[in-house]
Amino acid sequence: MSEREIRYGTYLGAIKRHKRRVNFSAILEAERLRPARPRLRLVDLHRLLTPYISVRLAEQLRAVVPLALLLIAFQALALRTSLLDTETVVLGILAVIIGLMFFMEGVKRGLMPFAENVGFHMPGRMHPSVLLGFSLLLGGAATFAEPAIGALQAAADAISSERAPWLKQLLGPYALWLVLAVATGVGLAVSLGMLRLMFGWRLKVLVMVIVPPTLLFTVWAAQQPALAPIIGLAWDCGAITTGPVTVPLVLAVGVGVAASTGRSDNPLSGFGIVTLASLFPIVGVLSVATYLTAQGAEGLLPMASEAPDGWHAESPFAEILGAFRAIVPLLLLLVLVQLLLLRRRIRQRSVFLYGVIMAIAGMALFNLGLTAGLVTLGEQAGVNVPWAFSPHWQTGAAALYPFALGIAVTLAFAFTVGYGATLAEPALNAMGVTVENLTDGAFRKRQLLHAVAIGVGCGAALGVSRILFDLPLWLLLVVGYTLALGLTILSREELVNLAWDSAGVTTGPVTVPLLMALGIGLGHAVEAADSFGILAMCSVGPIVSVMITGLWIDIKTRGRFQRRPA
């Protein structure tokens, strides 16, 4: 198109022809006379809210429904039993699904932005000691907010007071000591994780320094009659702490610190804190147990025979109050640091308030549905599973299968539950996408998911074998973690970060209650002293499987480059 020159005055005249002067008072009058804003119809609300809710609801449905259907189908087909209290269990599962949806949405909208903002601004404005103190408090408060931490209380009834008195005490009169030990361990782990991010320490070195003494402490405790039954509880506590509250909040603070210290160029820089948060509580619980057992028989307290009276102890008030006790201290900590230490106002207060309300409502619903739904379903499966290889403990009916076949069916069921639960964990799916992007497709998301799921499935089968055959848990842990340490030495730093953190994200709020309930049912049926250890084996399994997969990928990749012609 050819250019044409015109005078500037001609241009202004052409523009003025399309202008019209309007009095400002006329604009105000027209605004006043404009019809009121129309109200939203039901179809409009449906179009606005359905896409928003469906994505979040589908995520929790994928996590809960396959496991529930698996347990029901296994009982119906393999054990030839029907589900008891069907309506109550179904309503409980629905409450768990909706509660998890609300809770995760609240954490993402209300708590995580606070944690990341605090982590970003504190290193530059505060002394490192203040950051470490905040990390200690944050880790402890996040532990109290974990939904799965309440699953420990359900295991107390299946413990024998004669065979494991101090284990019964830790889940009874000394339950607060147990929770404080776990919270302190997580707090110290988060503080050490912050130091690692600030100074660029390698996770491989930290693992080689921390894990061997922890294993030695475990071996020593196994030789003490009073401490030996507590080993399973201590290692299971390490798995329970890394749940939907601790993981996102701690990683959010880590991302903020990494960005503030100039280490955000490596997306794996935030990895490793979850590993530390799963190791330190083990030492904390064993240390508290060592102190208590040193008191001797004088330290044993009477077990409460009756539940506390009052409206606050009845459902649903107990669950609602429990949700407030879990969320409010964590919330107050973040708000006080934001306002008093950082002197920054809260932005988007409506979104923040929405997140807080969703988190509290979600935890209350989750607590309501946990006992009525997932725990009941897992206990029913756990009680009926031994019928596959031994006479029914209630009716005395003959075993359904020969002993060897029945054991194989039981272990296959445990593997399937662990495998299916892991594939449904939302945190693991998010990690898979990140890893595939970081490795440029060398370590694909599907490979990571199946590697972790196989490890968890094998760990669940080993944990069930430990309960059925009364195997020494300390020996299984020593063998498993010795193999993991050997693979750690052979693996590169990025793979070590990924493998050790993958063990933490697998034990989520759905997997933990189911596996705990399954262990409780099995332990009760075979009269085991305790039903712990399944989660501990589910933690070491994915470490080994992911590092083996990563080493295989590295070998295959190097071979491909060596065969490529120059």
TrEMBL record:
Lipid metabolism listed as a keyword: no
The keyword Membrane appears for this protein: yes
Transmembrane spans: 63-83, 89-107, 128-154, 174-193, 205-222, 228-259, 271-294, 320-342, 351-378, 398-421, 448-467, 473-491, 503-526, 532-553
Keyword tags: Membrane, Transmembrane, Transmembrane helix
Protein name listed in UniProt: DUF1538 domain-containing protein
Lineage: Bacteria, Pseudomonadati, Pseudomonadota, Gammaproteobacteria, Chromatiales
